[in-house]
Each structure stands twice: as C-alpha cells, then as structure tokens.
Amino acid sequence: MIKSRKQQKKFMKQSGYNKTQAALVKAVSMLCRPLIRLLIEKGMTFPQFRELMKSLYVDVAAQHFSLDDKKPSDSRIFVLTGVHRKDIKRLRQQAEQESSAITSSASLSAEIVARWSSVAEFLDDKNRSRALQKSGKNNVAGFEQLVSSVNKDVRPKVILEEWLRLNIVRLKGDYVVLNKSAFVTNKEFTEMAYYLGHHVHDHLASCVNNILAENEPMLERSVYYASLTEDSVNKLNAIASKKGNELLLHVNKQAIKFYDADKNKADAAYRMRLGVYWYQTPLNASVDPAKEVEQ
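Now predict its structure.
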C-alpha cells in the first residue's frame, strides 16, 4: 500500500530525492501499481523485473542521451543511470546479438479491420462493415481482396482461420462477418499485451513530451468526477462509449485516405495514435491510489 504522506516524506528525505524527483516518484508509484499487479498475477518476479529495468535504463540512455551524435560510452551511461559498468557492457553486447525482434500479428489485424470499417468498397449503405464473400465476385470486393489491399504477402486463408479462432469474425454461409468485438482488443492474451504496450507507451510518451516541453504540446485530456452513483457512472459510460467510438471511426476514415495518398511519398515518416479509455471503480480510499497519495 502507498505510504501515508508523513511516511512518504521520510522516505523521500532518506532516499535523497529533490523536490522534482519526489513529485515524480509519487506519480510513478501511482502509475506502476496496476502494472505491478499484472506482473505478479502473470508470475513475473521482482528479480526478473529488476533485470528488465536495468536493460531499459541502459537502452534509453544510449538512445536519447548521446553527445555530439556520438554513441555514449559505458562510463557516461553509468553516470546517467547508476547501472554497474559490467552490467552495461553485458547488456549492450546482448542487445547487439539479438538480431531478430519480437513481432506480432496484432498490427496487421488492426490495419485490416481499420480498412474494413472505413473504405467505401467494404461498407454497406449505412457505412458499416458489410459481410464479405470469401472471394469477391462480379467486381465486388471480398475478404481476399480486403486482406490483399493491406498485405499481399499473407494468405487470406491464414488470416481467416486465425480470426475465426480469436472470434474476430464469424462465417455466415459463404460470407465473412466482422464481429463487434473486433473494434476492441480480443481475448487472446498476447494480443492484449501487444496493445497494452503500444497504447500505454504512446499515452505516456505524450505526457512526458508535455512535461519536458520537447515539442509542441500533444493532446492529453481526461474528465474526472467522484461521488457519483453507480447508475450515473453507467450512463456516462454509455455516452462515452458511443461518442468515443464515433470519434475513432471518423478519424480512422480520414486517416485511411491520408495513408493511401501519403504511403509512397519520401517524407511519409510520421505515425500517430488517438486513444480513448474509460475507467471506473468504487470510491474507496483504501484501494484508491489517487486519494492515498493526496492524504
């Protein structure tokens, strides 16, 4: 449990934190609690997490804190991070030996679903994702054409089989129907973990950009209310779900048009992500980090 205000001040003083670091520690303690809960639930121990953090400290220092465009030395990384030089050398050599990166089919699936829900040839007369024949006929695009419009190196049959397993689609005769659940993360844990990393990374990176004032401020807003009834919260959730989905679909349709126009341009070197999230919980000081930190 997060320490009381008096205990926190004592901890900060003993640890040698300055005022800026102390404020940051409070924020990091709060944002890490759900993550630590997930790690414990999935069996990742503190020694494993410590080794991961050590590796990340070295990697981020090497990537973002170079001088005169020169690769920072082990000594400089030691000064920046406090990680022992022996560990720095080992971790850097290990990183160089790892030539293959972990990949996920999640990004490909997301792009296919995005196209299915926004490109006119795959929509019905109400601008909703229409049921697609496995193979299009009579100049009407089908599921095979949808997959090929995103990636011609992947067999549509492979995508279809995997999507049926994950319940992203269902078959209705010779037609492939997109399930509503495809607009949110599916239940496959590896896919959910993929989105956890990418979504929260970009949200946090936006916050860090705004705090460090490195570039123009990025959109990062939320609405917060407490002391509401469960009925009121459920009504607000319904409103947020409806309006949030409308916003995401609208931006998605515009983004697809820009992507098709930009993808072959020499300066097409940027990416973006717009996210919408909702969270609710009973207002209980014993389990609410926000209230505990402020006490």
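Strands lie at 132-133, 169-172, 175-178.
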